[in-house]
Amino acid sequence: MEISSIIFIILLIVAGGLFAKNLNTIIRNIKLGRDLDRNDRKNERFSLMARVALGQSKMVVRPFAGFLHIIVYVGFIIINIEVLEIVLDGILGTHRLFAFMGGFYHFLIATFEGLALLVLVACVIFLVRRNVLRIKRFFGKEMTTWPKTDANLILITEILLMSAFLIMNAADAQLQVLGSEYYTNVGSFPISRQLMGAFAGMSESSLIVLERGAWWFHIIGIFAFLNYLPYSKHFHILLAFPNVFYAKLTPKGQLDNLASVKKEVEMMFDPSADPYAVPAEPEGEPQRFGAKDVTDLTWKQLMDAYTCTECGRCTDVCPANITGKALSPRKIMMDTRDRLEEVGKGIDKNGKGFNDNKSLLRDYISEEELLACTSCNACVQACPVNIDQLSIIVDLRRFLIMEESKAPAEWTGIFTNIENNGAPWQFAQADRLNWKNEQ
Amino acid sequence: MSELKVPTMAEMMASGQQPDVLFWVGCAGSFDDRAKKITRAFVKILNNVGVNFAVLGTEESCTGDPAKRAGNEFLFQMQAMGNIQVLNAYEVKSIVTTCPHCFNTLKNEYPELGGNYEVKHHSQFLQELINQGKLTVEGGVFKGKKITFHDPCYLGRANDVYEAPRNLIEKLDAELVEMKRCKSSGLCCGAGGAQMFKEAEKGNKEVNIERTEEALEIQPNIIATGCPFCMTMMTDGVKLKEKSTEVQVFDLAELIAQAKDL
Ligand code: HEM
Ligand code: SF4
Ligand code: SF4
């Protein structure tokens, strides 16, 4: 076996292993969330995933960004066929293993090259939109240095990878022209051919160095990118699919009825219930009313956090945010992910019982943010990967109100009124039909 | 002005009758001065068509929506259980309401707690009456007027009801004009999630002003809506923008009642 094959196989194993480890950590973190059954209505779930994730239906609500993204998305998926060949070449020490397909191979390479160019151009436009045109939704107080760098890094990496791919092909094409030994004639290389001119004066040996260099750069870049994913908003390229699949299918207006509360309320309404009976404790820790920290959220809410692409479509349509309030639904998702990562690292270091006396509520998300939400569902509607930002806001509010009794004074007032006279205002229930005789 | 006929469930029961539908009035519809006009307008239509309906009257209580959205799940479920007991005791099968918040809660959140009813928003109910030929509407006073519809979040996004309100407006021979943000991307009026009952958090604008400005941009004669809370928010907004003489805010039921000169 050639030395290059051995190096390649080692790289492949290390990259694959690291990625598997990272993936495991993320799955473990998501499983820190509470149980929730989302295995019902499978057919609807598949068709939702086909429409929203595969079909990008909510991306194209913003046609230009949606169009660019479809190029990158389709380009990525199709170019992966080429990556398969590259990986096999690397392992076997072959050159262009699939070339035996003949005419079809020409067609494939031509397609890959066309897509690579399109992806490259789309990524340049994405960069311009972020850094030159400075589109508003890419900014905001939660878009600190790291998220902005992350976004740019992804785009620059994509550009570099696509460039390496095209340079590799151009050098290959030039070598074919020179009749170099290993570089048999395999295609027309319609895009990279345009670059050949730049390499015309180069010797065969330097062309080989260039071709091999670009080949290694490209594949090592892909390995590195794979392992960057779990730290980045770019993880959405994997999670978008399951996240849409497991999304809430009930009407957006429907909030869940807390089961723990239901049990208590049923007791109060049941005349035969023994008032002195000790309520049977459910197994494990008693469940809090609402959520204080990420571990009080469901696994789906945590998966939402890892899926968020930080695109800002939600914040851009949030009535609270539009009118200058502190609330930003994107920040809710980014905070949830950051806190979950913190808890995960704590568990890695100190074991399961770890406690840092911090929580999602207050250390990350303030009361002021939570109270500003009108529960209008604009964020949920806008999210291209079907994230339910509102459910986290409501769960945090529940903790605030039911566990800490921290309601603003006006809300305490409406609670008292509802309890005493069955309306949020101070009117007697006996007057409820007075409208009938008024003008 | 003729008397409104508003039988209660208790009266119906006493005389051995069962109404076809229960009209759930809601807290705003019962107590808020502006919203009471919507309630009366809707009843006028029901009376005019001769719908066999009843109300709970003093037996109705808050659905618990504001408590639930504020985070007080306990109070919500107490309210829900209480209401479900009353509704089930009267064997209610079908409910119509003029409040999207009551609509959403009764339709979506009560079933799991034991309250299973067929629930309709009044825009859907009126649309059905028209489809069945029981209610006829001609433009009359609204002919040629520019009307825009503000989608209540709890009717639109929350429950995907966008067409029934628009169909009603078109029945008025009016020109339906849409705001930039409409239907599923409609902007909230600012009242939902129990915001109605407290001061807004610190910001640089009130949500209802943002929404009213958007509505005024297209220069409608009338802003129509289908929610008593949106009504408050939009009416206040128009007042603050000093446009009350040019632009009026009406509920769909009021528009139909006026068109029929009820
Ligand atoms: C599987 C292959 C995918 C690739 C290679 C990919 C690639 C990218 C890239 C490069 C960006 C950065 C664009 C920017 O900086 O503005 C991006 C953003 C984004 N992607 Fe994907 N993506 C993939 C799948 C998906 C799927 C399935 C969805 C779900 C519909 C999705 C939704 C988004 C969203 C919402 C953004 C934010 C940017 C915007 O709003 O335009 N992506 N993606
Ligand atoms: S539901 Fe709350 S967070 Fe989402 S857009 Fe509406 S106000 Fe903003
Ligand atoms: S929650 Fe959805 S809409 Fe909001 S930033 Fe994340 S991906 Fe975009």
Task: Supply the helix-strand structural class of chain B.
Answer: alpha/beta
- CATH fold category name of the largest domain in chain B: Rossmann fold
Rounded Rg of chain B? 18 Å
- The run of helices and strands of chain B is HEHHEHHEHEHEHEHEHEH
The largest sheet of chain A is: none
What's the end-to-end separation of chain B, in Å? 9 Å
Give me the side-by-side strand order of the main sheet of chain B. Answer: 2-1-3-4
User: Which overall shape of chain A is indicated by the principal axes computed on the Cα atoms?
Assistant: elongated
Strand content of chain B: 5-15%
Which structural category fits the helices and strands of chain A? mainly alpha
CATH fold-level name of the largest domain in chain A = Fumarate Reductase Cytochrome B subunit
Provide the low-confidence segments of chain B as ranges.
none
Portion of residues in helices of chain B?
Answer: 40-55%
- The value of Rg of chain A in angstroms is 28 Å
Supply the CATH architecture of the largest domain in chain A. Up-down Bundle
Describe the oligomeric state of these chains in a short phrase: heterodimer
**Which stretches of chain A are low in confidence, meaning pLDDT under 50 for 5 or more residues running?**
none
The number of helical segments of chain B is 11
Specify the overall morphology of chain B: globular
Number of helices of chain A: 18
Polypeptide structure, described:
The complex is a heterodimer of chains A (439) and B (262). The relative contact order of chain A is 0.11. Chain A is mostly helical and 439 residues long. The mean pLDDT of chain A is 93. Chain A is 61% helix and 0% strand. Chain A folds into two domains: 3-30 and 62-235, Fumarate Reductase Cytochrome B subunit (Up-down Bundle); 248-266 and 288-408, Fumarate Reductase Iron-sulfur Protein, Chain B, domain 2, CATH 1.10.1060. The termini of chain A are far apart. By secondary structure, chain B is α/β, with parallel strands linked by helices. Chain B has two domains: 9-128, Rossmann fold, CATH 3.40.50; 137-259, Rossmann fold. Chain B contains eleven helices and eight strands. In chain B, the strands form two sheets. Chain B has a four-stranded parallel β-sheet. Chain B has a four-stranded parallel β-sheet with strand order 6-5-7-8, sandwiched between helices. In chain B, helix 3 crosses helix 11 and helix 7 crosses helix 8 (163-171). The longest helix of chain B has 17 residues, at 33-49. Chain B starts with 8 loop residues before the first helix and ends with a helix. The complex binds protoporphyrin IX containing FE and iron/sulfur cluster (SF4) (2 copies).
